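User: I'm writing a tutorial on reading structure tokens. Could you give me a worked example: one chain, its sequence, then its tokens, then a sentence or two explaining what the tokens reveal?
Assistant: Sure. Here is the example chain.
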Amino acid sequence: MQMSFPNIPVATLGVPRIGRRRELKFALEAYWSGQIEAAELLETARKLRAEKWIEQRDRGVTKIPSNDFSLYDQVLDTVAMVGAVPPRFGWIGGAVSLDTYFTMARGRGEESCGHAGHSQTMTALEMTKWFDTNYHYMVPEFGPDQNFTLSSTKPLDEFLEAKALGIHTRPVIIGPVTFLKLGKCIGEDFDRLALLPRLLPVYAELLAKLHKAGADWVQFDEPCLVTDLEPREREAASFAYGKLAAEVPGVKAMVATYFGGLGDNLETALGLPVAGLHLDLVRAPEQLAPVGRLARKDLVLSLGLIDGRNVWRSDLSSILDRIKSVVAGWTLDRIEIAPSCSLLHVPIDLELETALDGELKSWLAFSVQKMDELRVLARALSEGRDAVANELKASAEAAASRAASPKVHDPLVEGRLSAITEPMRRRRSVFAERRRLQREKLNLPAFPTTTIGSFPQTPEVRKARAAHARGELSYVDYEAFLKRETEAAIRWQEEIGLDVLVHGEFERNDMVQYFGEQLAGFAFTKHAWVQSYGSRCVRPPIIFGDVSRPRPMTVAWWQYAQSLTSRPVKGMLTGPVTILNWSFVRDDLPRAAVCRQIALAIRDEVADLEEAGTSMIQIDEAALREGLPLRKSEWQAYLDWAVECFRLASSGVRDDTQIHTHMCYSEFNDIIEAIAAMDADVISIETSRSRMELLDAFRSYNYPNEIGPGVYDIHSPRVPDVAEMKNLLALARRRLTDGQIWINPDCGLKTRKWEEVRPALVNMVAAARELRAAAA
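And here are its predicted structure tokens:
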């Protein structure tokens, strides 16, 4: 049957770039390891771009994006595009090479590897979360004397690449204001937006090239417009787009805002001299009415009606009902239909999930299915609902099925939530008393050493897991394999002298998925991968119903590991807020209620670990900060329930049981009171790339509990030497008391290779021993 396309334009803003079978991931890792040449990597990338352009065209997308593809990260692409390469990478101008690009992303160790061909050590750019998502971006670095030059024509190249296929695209570029705001100052602190007059000529030069090549529209992503902005920042946005409109009048600009509402930036956004404005009407449906009243009549409004951040199928009739009164008098040439944001954040195609429960599958929509939903909405608006009556009926039936399904609701879980009491949310004694009891029990040396939890998931581990999943390796043989890996890890940790051990987590596929697979209310996929950063992909669980823990999840593996050694082995759990934030969460309950359900399940696991004899339990909350709303006025409500959920999970233990937590890439200054309120006995954080700057918040607050500042950047293949780690620890000692400091890597070591991990941890232990000797 031939597909009917609407008259109203349909846009996607961006689509997943990794490939249906993670082709980009495997090509990148093969290139980095020297197994393939650059030409093969680039050919894989070209094929992936062509496939996604053709698929969008064939599904009725008429505003097809280009330059939404990246070999690593779109912010890093922009760094290369404008020549903002920090001096340490040795770039002397001209086109930014693939080697320089990946070195900015991954750093470089002392030894040449892959295709680098250099021995000079270089630290990578910092990495942090893209607004409130689980996608990571590389942080640009700017100095007050920063200059910019057009050093990559990637947006033009990919526009021409699509054009050669007969597909007219709308290039996507990170807006100049958002780009500068995402960066950090190097050296002295200064107003990064003061660099706009130097940056804008590069944007204008690129736009002129795109216009000459035939581009009529360009999408500028400016999600900063949904955040708290100062007057000077609003003025910067007006200045930037006024300048670009004057310099390159032939290109129409679609400014894309997403992840929230414009709020007090509405007047600024509507006053920009641009041809189009994209609105996130999933996160902020209330903004449609004022925009509809106040927008210029010639302004094209891109309506973000389908959730680009979650996997639930939309109730299309409800969406149409919600917007019909506002758009009733609009001309069709004033509207585009789009997802709330780029579809980068959802899996690619639901049809790959052949083993998923049929009823649950009927409630879901991935990137491909969301394109179909967009097409239906556009046809309903342009041709009337009768033209898509069957599609609207199917959508409504799926919504009704989900709302009524007994798979979703568990009265026992609802009863437990209502029975939560205040004492369940706090430890029995204050930290000072707990600390005394824990030190008596554990008898650890000064500056104790440990790791965050996971050890390398080698090809052998992945191969065994895959063979077991296919039924080719029996459970008995698989368990024996995992026990051998665990024992080898315990013996090696003892050998190098780590003080607190971990079992390595070889049985775990992912720090969230592993737990979700053992909790009621979660569903799992086989191919629903989304990109976290670079080649790192994850398959977030889907929380579809009430959450409970049918049985212990980690106790047996902890017991086995502890039986191998007299040194303490940490029990390792993922915290409720991180499980929530790294899952696709049901949207029929408040997130706080779902998080409390998860917290009660983790609380049960903590109790069983303690009963089994665990002396320390780590409950990772790597994603606590990334769940912060983008508006500070909404922070406190989130932090209140997030902290409550951590304490609900962790506070049922005795005083002499030590509770650890770990947080990733968090700017702590604004949430230090909430971190203190979590009342973990030990917190480990990622600080090596910032050279301990993140500890300033703990020093200013006079944080009383113990802290493990990371001294080893695990997101880079380079191996830091003893001197480098000692220097980092010296910086930490300026900010913390000696009695507070633990020594550990930045994060888990799952993604690294043993040949990187072994020397790095040996150096870390040596640095700790030298520090103890010097401090004695």
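What the tokens reveal: The domain at 23-91+126-404 is CATH 3.20.20.210 (TIM Barrel). Confidence is low (pLDDT under 50) at residues 110-119.
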